[in-house]
């Protein structure tokens, strides 16, 4: 892929024959609960993992390009898109920071351009503070390095990542205050263990296995950010939220796109035996289709404006987090509504666990588990409007 690729050229970069191959494999990956190996190899050969290093966020329009590409990919193979997302998020973060004058993650760009595959070791069981606190324990070592011990969940790309982003809490690390340390560790680092425990309802091909960190040694120069515990507007925090919420929303809008396409196809193709008419003429079903389509249209407009503003460095900083969590929430809602409609009009065959409609619905339900949850998103929006609650 070259920097001349634009959102208008996504169709040539991800052509229909490629997407049909991906769609054809998706059912097998899902049924066997295996990684999307062949898809990954094809995307790597295409240079897709360099999407945001070749066309970075900013004036080149990288965020809009990545969102359009991920949406198109997700319409064919949602789990493949969601897995690739985790690598793209890190390159998006690096690009968003660089575009705003912070070159601290320039090495991510360079390493990704050289073929390294990045993944997130951030989510922790029981940690609803997400980036603002950590249950992973960090200890300072005598040689100046650090030791990380904890459990990370939802580590997508487990079979193929080569660089894992982790964070943890060093108690009393900064003038007696607890401190969050962010670092990357290469694959093969002693103490990093991947558990083959991924057996979820949906998004199975991501192979987002649990990762255990047992005294993982991190050299001091591998720590790329040190932050206080608690909410803060550090550019890294903004970058991760902006990249993650935007690209996750793109994936779920892709699911909504495909589900609506399947719904229209079913309504056009199927007929009512009793009414002797196409289902597309049934006013109840037409109304059922219109609701999810309207949700998709609204979320689509949000995504376009958010990516445009991110690339343009526009928008009020104080309102960004509310916008981002709203976008993600609306995109997931659109996907769930669209797949529900597709199940309703598709007939009994769609209820088969092996059907594309059922798989899309299961994949859509996974959206509620990505940060921010709906409850957290509503709290973020309320705080943006009212300020933090007193007491």
Written overview of the protein:
It is a single chain. This protein has 391 residues and is an alpha+beta fold. It has three domains: 7-117, Butyryl-Coa Dehydrogenase, subunit A, domain 1, CATH 1.10.540; 119-228, Butyryl-CoA Dehydrogenase, subunit A, domain 2 (Beta Barrel), CATH 2.40.110.10; 235-386, Butyryl-CoA Dehydrogenase, subunit A, domain 3 (Up-down Bundle), CATH 1.20.140.10. It is built from twelve helices and ten strands. Strands 1, 2, 3, 4, 5, 6, 7 and 8 form an eight-stranded mixed beta sheet that branches. The chain has a two-stranded antiparallel ribbon with strand order 9-10. A hairpin with a 5-residue loop joins strand 2 (137-140) and strand 3 (146-155). The N and C termini lie far apart (53 Å). The model is unreliable at 1-5 (pLDDT under 50).
What's the topology here?
Layout: H1 10-13, H2 16-32, H3 37-46, H4 51-54, H5 62-76, H6 78-99, H7 106-113, E1 118-121, E2 137-140, E3 146-155, E4 163-174, E5 177-186, E6 192-195, E7 209-218, E8 223-228, H8 235-269, E9 271-272, E10 277-278, H9 283-312, H10 317-345, H11 356-365, H12 374-386
Parallel strand pairs: 1-4, 2-4
Antiparallel strand pairs: 2-3, 3-7, 4-5, 5-8, 6-7, 9-10
Helix pairs in contact: 5-6, 5-8, 5-9, 6-7, 6-8, 8-9, 8-10, 8-11, 9-10, 10-11, 10-12
């Amino acid at each position: 892929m070259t920097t001349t690729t634009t959102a208008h050229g996504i169709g040539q970069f991800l052509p229909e024959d490629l997407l049909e191959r991906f769609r054809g494999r998706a059912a097998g990956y899902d049924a066997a609960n295996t990684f999307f190996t062949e898809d990954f190899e094809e995307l790597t050969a295409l240079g897709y993992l360099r999407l945001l290093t070749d066309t970075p966020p900013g004036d080149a329009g990288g965020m809009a390009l990545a969102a359009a590409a991920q949406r198109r990919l997700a319409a064919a193979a949602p789990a493949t898109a969601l897995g690739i997302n985790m690598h793209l998020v890190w390159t998006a973060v690096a690009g968003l920071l660089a575009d705003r004058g912070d070159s601290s993650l320039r090495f991510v760009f360079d390493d990704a351009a050289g073929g390294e595959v990045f993944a997130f070791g951030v989510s922790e069981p029981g940690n609803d503070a997400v980036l603002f606190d950590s249950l992973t324990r960090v200890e300072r070592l005598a040689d100046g390095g650090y030791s990380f011990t904890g459990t990370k969940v939802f580590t997508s790309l487990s079979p193929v990542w080569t660089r894992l982003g982790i964070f943890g809490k060093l108690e009393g690390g900064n003038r007696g205050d607890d401190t969050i340390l962010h670092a990357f560790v290469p694959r093969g680092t002693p103490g990093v263990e991947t558990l083959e425990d991924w057996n979820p309802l949906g998004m199975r091909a991501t192979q987002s296995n649990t990762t255990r960190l047992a005294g993982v040694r991190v050299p001091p120069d591998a720590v790329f950010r040190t932050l206080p515990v608690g909410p803060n507007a550090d550019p890294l925090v903004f970058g991760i939220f902006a990249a993650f919420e935007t690209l996750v929303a793109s994936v779920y809008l892709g699911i909504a796109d495909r589900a609506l396409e399947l719904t229209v196809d079913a309504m056009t193709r199927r007929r009512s035996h009793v009414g002797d008419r196409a289902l597309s003429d049934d006013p109840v079903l037409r109304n059922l289709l219109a609701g999810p389509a309207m949700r998709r249209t609204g979320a689509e407009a949000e995504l376009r404006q958010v990516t445009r503003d991110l690339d343009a460095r526009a928008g009020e900083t104080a309102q960004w987090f509310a916008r981002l969590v709203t976008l993600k929430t609306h995109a997931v809602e659109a996907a769930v509504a669209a797949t529900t409609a597709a199940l309703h009009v598709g007939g009994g065959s769609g209820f088969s666990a092996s059907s594309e409609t059922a798989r899309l619905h299961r994949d859509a339900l996974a959206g509620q588990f990505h940060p921010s949850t709906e409850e957290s998103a509503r709290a973020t929006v309320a705080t943006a409007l009212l300020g933090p609650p007193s007491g």
